[in-house]
């Protein structure tokens, strides 16, 4: 009932201001002055509503899993960090093996950590992911820094050597940085590792892992995860605007 009354009152107010606007040319000046002051007060609230609404509606929708998938895709995924807000959006002086959400873990061997991780809201027009990840590295006295993304169980169900695994990353760096992607697949007592280097000086990069060149035991696949390995990351800022995974069968020859 309250919603119906709100609609009726809103329609009545709209008719009133339409009639006031149509009669402004003939209205008496004292009356017109009062109407102008009322309209200015109303416009203040309307302008604020329009500004906030346009800003929020322009952002990628929280929880979105939308991204381009090539023909033949049988599994695709965007990790939770890039889909929705985390309970704890950031960490400072990050120790090794720190988790940000349930799927992302940071590893390093620094004696004294001067690293920060923070989830941020993507606001650019071209962003498809609702959220991104910013990593700030100040002084770095370690020998390695890697960000590990654990793939869900669905990624390994039905996985064979006939599959390609594609990783798409939208990345920004404060200064040039070498980054390597290493796919790890645990099968029985062994772990298969395939390494690809991310192309430098590109904001949107794609790497493919062809499992045909691996020694994968398809019947014993247990886990899979991706390492993003950063070389010489000292005094740099890295923003991962989006990370997505696609699995598809290789084209038959």
Can you walk through the features of this model?
The chain is an alpha+beta fold and 253 residues long. It folds into two domains: 2-58, no CATH class; 73-249, Jelly Rolls (Sandwich), CATH 2.60.120. Helix content is 20%, strand content 38%. It is built from two helices and 13 strands. Strands 1, 2, 5, 6, 8, 11 and 13 form a seven-stranded antiparallel β-sheet that branches. Strands 3-4-7-12-9-10 form a six-stranded antiparallel β-sheet, with no helix packed on it. A hairpin with a 3-residue loop joins β3 and β4 (104-108). The mean pLDDT is 90.
Concise summary:
The chain has helices at 2-22, 29-58, and strands spanning 73-77, 90-92, 98-100, 104-108, 115-121, 131-137, 145-150, 163-173, 178-187, 190-197, 204-210, 221-231, 236-249. The mean pLDDT is 90.
The CATH superfamily of the largest domain bears the name Galactose-binding domain-like
**Per CATH, which architecture of the largest domain?**
Sandwich
Number of structural units classed as domains: 2
The description of the largest β-sheet is: 7 strands, antiparallel
Sum up the overall morphology in one term.
elongated
Beta-strand segment tally: 13
Beta strand %: 35-45%
Order of helices and strands: HHEEEEEEEEEEEEE
**Average pLDDT:** 90
Unreliable sequence segments: none
Number of helices: 2
Helix content: 10-25%
End-to-end separation: 65 Å
Give the CATH topology of the largest domain. Jelly Rolls
Q: According to CATH, what is the class of the largest domain? A: Mainly Beta
Global Rg: 26 Å
> What is the structural class?
alpha+beta
């Amino acid at each position: 009932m309250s919603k119906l009354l709100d609609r009726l009152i809103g329609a009545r107010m709209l008719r009133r201001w339409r009639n006031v606007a149509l009669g402004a040319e003939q209205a008496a000046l004292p009356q017109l002055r009062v109407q102008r002051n009322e309209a200015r007060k109303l416009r203040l609230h309307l302008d604020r509503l329009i500004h906030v609404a346009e800003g929020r509606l322009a952002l990628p929708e929280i929880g979105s899993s939308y991204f381009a998938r090539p023909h033949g895709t049988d599994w695709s995924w965007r990790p939770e960090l890039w889909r929705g807000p985390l309970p704890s959006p950031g960490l400072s002086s990050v120790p090794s093996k720190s988790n940000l959400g349930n799927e992302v873990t940071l590893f390093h061997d620094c004696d004294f950590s001067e690293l920060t991780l923070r989830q941020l809201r993507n606001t650019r027009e071209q962003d498809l992911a609702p959220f991104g990840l910013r990593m700030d590295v100040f002084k770095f006295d370690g020998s390695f820094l890697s960000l590990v993304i654990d793939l869900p169980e669905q990624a390994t169900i039905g996985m064979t050597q006939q599959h390609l695994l594609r990783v798409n990353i939208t990345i920004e760096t404060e200064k040039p940085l070498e980054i390597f992607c290493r796919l790890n697949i645990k099968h029985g007592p062994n772990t298969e590792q395939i390494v690809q280097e991310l192309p430098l000086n590109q904001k949107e990069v794609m790497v493919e892992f062809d499992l045909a060149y691996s020694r994968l035991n398809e019947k014993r696949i247990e886990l899979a995860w991706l390492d993003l390995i950063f070389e010489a990351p000292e005094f740099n800022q890295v923003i991962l605007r989006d990370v997505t995974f696609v699995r598809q069968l290789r084209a038959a020859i």
